[in-house]
Design brief:
This is AraC family transcriptional regulator. It is built from 10 helices and 8 strands. By secondary structure, the protein is of the alpha+beta class. It has 2 domains: 162 residues, Sandwich (Jelly Rolls); 91 residues, Orthogonal Bundle (Arc Repressor Mutant, subunit A). A 5-stranded antiparallel β-sheet has the order 1-7-2-5-8. The protein has a 3-stranded antiparallel β-sheet with strand order 4-3-6.
Length: 290
């Protein structure tokens, strides 16, 4: 069951807010690998599955929360015999109160911490689960009943959720489980290997050799778990890293292309534009002038 605002209008793309309440999807209906310019908070009400986020595989089960910052590759694989039921909040940083009254907290600090530490899963203690579920139910009521100021109310509740999760994480460090898992031991290894060697030759045969499996088996399992082929995954990881370097360094585009393993600058330009919609130079100029 979906609330309003699920489909974002063009005018809202810079400041999106969307909410899905207790939705279940079969594996064949899950979106392929994807990433957004906005953030997600996903709460698992019931079911089991495997969630690929960035370069790690996680088990999904009741009480899990997944925090997915913007520009993070992810793909869910629900267990077809025990489908995942989840609620999801999609929101832009632009909608979150930006001012930090003290140095110890800001509403986006949790997102920033998750992005930095690359720990995307929090397993909520049983006693805390009804609190999170009540927040989500409140957002659902606001958006479906369409009261005066319902979107504003939903945003206020989203701020409460961010505060609650930040407090809970700080207070109960030992109780919160950031559990990683993989049905194929070599997959987590190879995902970490790719992350550390983006500038190297990462052809399918080379990766299969590193994983000690056949190229055919490697390709099939990789796509099954991540939702994309190995080459598409590598290209997206390289482009995401390139975006960071373009914004956080003064390196030339040619140097960045070489660092990311591209055999020529034109090849880098074409690939970057395919995934980002603009050239590296245009991206750097636009983001720095924003």
């Amino acid at each position: 069951m979906m609330s309003s605002l699920q489909d974002m209008k063009p005018l809202e793309e810079l400041f999106p807010y969307s909410f899905v309440y207790k939705n279940s999807k079969a594996p064949q209906n899950e979106r392929p690998d994807h990433m957004h310019h906005f953030h997600e908070i996903i709460y698992v009400h019931n079911g089991n599955g495997v969630f690929f986020i960035d370069n790690t595989l996680y088990e999904m089960s009741k009480g899990d929360i997944f925090i997915i910052p913007n520009d993070t590759l992810h793909h869910a694989r629900p267990d077809k015999h025990n489908l995942i039921t989840s609620s999801v909040i999609f929101f832009s940083s632009g909608l979150i109160y930006p001012i930090s009254i003290d140095d110890s907290f800001s509403y986006l600090s949790l997102i920033e911490k998750v992005k930095k530490e690359k720990e995307f899963k929090i397993q909520i203690p049983i006693k805390e689960q009804p609190i999170l579920e009540q927040y989500l139910l409140q957002i659902h009521h606001e958006l479906t009943e369409d009261k005066l100021g319902s979107i504003h109310a939903s945003l206020l509740i989203t701020h409460q959720i961010l505060l609650h999760l930040s407090r809970m994480k700080l207070k109960n460090k030992d109780e919160l489980i950031h559990a990683k898992t993989s049905p194929h031991d070599w997959m987590n290894y190879i995902l970490a290997y790719i992350e550390k060697n983006l500038e190297q030759n990462l052809s399918l045969p080379a990766l299969a050799k590193e994983a000690l499996v056949s190229p055919a088996h490697f390709s099939r399992i990789f796509k099954q778990i991540t939702g994309m082929g190995p080459i598409a995954y590598i290209n997206k990881k390289r482009i995401l890293k390139s975006k960071e370097l373009l914004l956080q360094s003064s390196l030339t585009i040619t140097v960045i292309a070489e660092m990311m393993g591209y055999d020529s600058t034109p090849h880098f330009y074409r690939t970057f534009k395919k995934y980002v919609g603009m050239t590296p130079a245009q991206f750097r100029k636009k983001e720095r002038n924003a």
